[in-house]
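Researcher: Re-running this chain for the archive, since the previous output was lost when a drive failed. Same request as before.
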Amino acid sequence: MSDIHMRNIQAFIQLLETRPSLFSDHGSALNDLETGLTEDIEQMSDAIEKWYEARVDIFKAHLEISKTLAKNKPGNYRGAGGTTPPPLPEEDMRKELINALRRYRPSKPYLTGKPRGDKNPIKG
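Model: Regenerated structure tokens:
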């Protein structure tokens, strides 16, 4: 496992958490990315890089975060609330990436159990 691959995944997670507006038009593509994830760190990193190919604006933001992570030791970037999270173990990286993708994803009204429209469409 390479630090480059770990850093690539960490940067993607951080980007999802700190700049979610960049992803507002990419919900379906994020679902596809999540579905295709494997347990292998290198393959996850490669999938993220491939995902960026058609999304240059997001890739540029990713590069900024990635450069910051490269300058610091792994885990020294500032997370939410200014805290310094410890580096993730390799076995937790996929789980953390999926959790970040799911936290970002807007809720779908048809999955919430909330009725739409008329509460009682059949009257009688």
